[in-house]
């Protein structure tokens, strides 16, 4: 998953939140069904979402300068 860098920090934050939520859902479903692969994919997506949110916050800080 690639995270585009740009000037729209709020957009990256929103997409990051969405990815984090989707990842958490996949993680929980994988754990509930015993599908370790699904669980790991969810964990990766969740962490990618968190990173994307941080990128969005950094973009907003840079835009203010």
Q: Which outline best applies? A: rod-shaped
Order of helices and strands: HH
How many beta-strand elements?
0
What percent of the residues sit in helical stretches (DSSP H or I)?
over 70%
Q: Which regions are unreliable across 5 or more consecutive residues at pLDDT < 50? A: none
Tally the helices: what do you get?
2
Q: What is the mean pLDDT?
A: 90
State the separation between the terminal residues, measured CA to CA. 29 Å
Strands, helices and their partners?
Elements lengths: L8 H25 L2 H29 L1
Task: Tell me briefly what this model is.
The chain is an all-alpha fold and 65 residues long. The protein has one domain.
Overall description:
There is one protein chain. The protein is mainly α. It has one domain (9-64). The chain is 83% helix and 0% strand. The chain has two helices and no strands. The longest helix is centred in the last third of the chain and has 29 residues, at 36-64. The model has no long low-confidence stretch (mean pLDDT 90).
């Amino acid at each position: 998953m690639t995270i585009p860098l740009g000037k729209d920090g709020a957009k990256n934050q929103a997409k990051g939140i969405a990815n984090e939520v989707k990842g958490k859902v996949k993680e929980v479903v994988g754990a509930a069904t015993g599908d370790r692969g699904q669980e790991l994919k969810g964990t990766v997506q969740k962490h990618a979402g968190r990173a994307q949110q941080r990128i969005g916050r950094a973009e907003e800080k840079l835009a203010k300068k």
